[in-house]
Amino acid sequence: MPSGNFSNCSRPSDFQHTLYAITYTAIFIPGLLANSVALWVLRSFITKKNKAIIFMINLATADLAHVLSLPLRIYYYINHSWPFKHFACLLCFYLKYLNMYASIIFLTLISVQRCVFTANPFKAKDWKRRYDVGISICVWLVVGTACLPFPIYRSSGGNNSTSCFADLGNNQINMITMSSMLIFAELFGFLVPMTVITYTSLKTSAQLKMDSLQCVNKREKKKALRLVITCACVFFICFTPYHITFFFYIMVSSNAIRNCTAQKIILTLHPISISLASINCCLNPIMYYFTASEFQSEMARRGNSMIRGRLMSKESASSF
Questions:
Q1: 170: phi then psi, degrees, rounded to nearest 5
Q2: For residues 110 and 50, is the Cβ–Cβ distance under 8 A?
Q3: What is the third-level CATH fold of 8-293?
Q4: What gap in Å lies between CA 192 and CA 198, rounded to an integer?
Q5: pTM for this one?
Q6: Residue 45 DSSP code
Q7: How many CB atoms lie within 10 A of CB 260?
């Protein structure tokens, strides 16, 4: 959420520029490579309707969109100046929150689908790929619309403004509108997904413990449990700190919290939580690799094919 109109005792610490520059620089190359490779490999499994592949592809796409905007963020936090159009600033700002909430929803959908299909294999057989496609389109429409207030309520600034991102001010909005935005974001962007992900993790774990079927099914359930738990870990590591500090940050920006010490603590924790939220761009590809045996096999197969191709090229060149 935007930086607020703070009192003199609670101006955001200068360290946030350095923190953001270091964080975004550290995750840019790994995030770009990992998500590009993930999309390259995941497309091979697009016909697998019971493996949450469509949701994983959308998750990787959301991560890649945010990663591609990072160079502009890095430039700003290093140079402390925005020489580009104001629209580009708001677009990058929008993509960050679009990535965050699209990631939350797709992580939730992956957890739910794996949990349901593990408990009811016959539902997996009857499930159509177009259902996942339709759900994904609805997610993008809903999340894309819901994230519009984030850039809309930023200071207009105009194209002549040299400030962007954390240094933008707020447009004035009334307390009812701000409270509605806060409740909506916290409830549907955090509390509901957290409840669902926690439930599916516990449910899948309970299914594995009660499993009395043959060993093959146990292995499938263990893989499903590993994926669901990994989704939960990514969710709690990346998004829980942000949404906890988000509530108090809004209280500070609206001057509902006036104590200087409390304001400084909150404004110090908030940039750290935003940095943690951005790390999901690197953690999600790790989830694909370590939780999907098919992903590992395909990576190995493609790697071997590339090595063989290079060896054949060298042999052909040496024969002349």
A1: -100, 145
A2: no
A3: Rhopdopsin 7-helix transmembrane proteins (1.20.1070)
A4: 10
A5: 0.84
A6: G
A7: 12
Per the structure block, which two tokens stand in for 171? 């447009």
Beta bridge pairs of residue 170: 154
| pLDDT, average across residues 170-187 | 76
In the numeric block, which tokens belong to residue 148? Answer: 């519009």
CA 244/CA 255 separation, integer angstroms: 18
Query: How many residues in total does the chain contain?
Result: 320
Higher-confidence position of 34 and 304: 34
Report CA 312 to chain centroid distance, whole Å: 40
Contact between 279 and 100 under an 8 Å Cβ cutoff? The reply is no
Condensed to tens digits (0 to 9), the pLDDT of residues 235-249 reads 999 999 999 998 888
Domain boundaries, the chain: 8-293
> Which of 167, 169, 165, 173 minimizes the C-alpha distance to 155?
169
Q: Helix, strand, or coil here: 229?
A: helix
Alpha-carbon separation of residue 133 from 29, 66, 74 (angstroms): 29, 21, 34
The answer to whether 240 and 164 have CB atoms below 8 angstroms apart is no
Round to whole Å and give the CA distance between 181 and 95.
18
Amino acid in position 15 = F
Average pLDDT over residues 15-29: 92
Return the half-sphere exposure (C-beta side, CA atoms, 13 A cut-off) of residue 153.
17
- Structure-block tokens of residue 192: 């509901």
In the three-class reduction of DSSP (H, G, I as helix; E, B as strand; rest coil), residue 2 is classed as: coil
On the question of pLDDT at 64 being above 90, the answer is yes
**Average pLDDT value for residue range 109-119:** 86
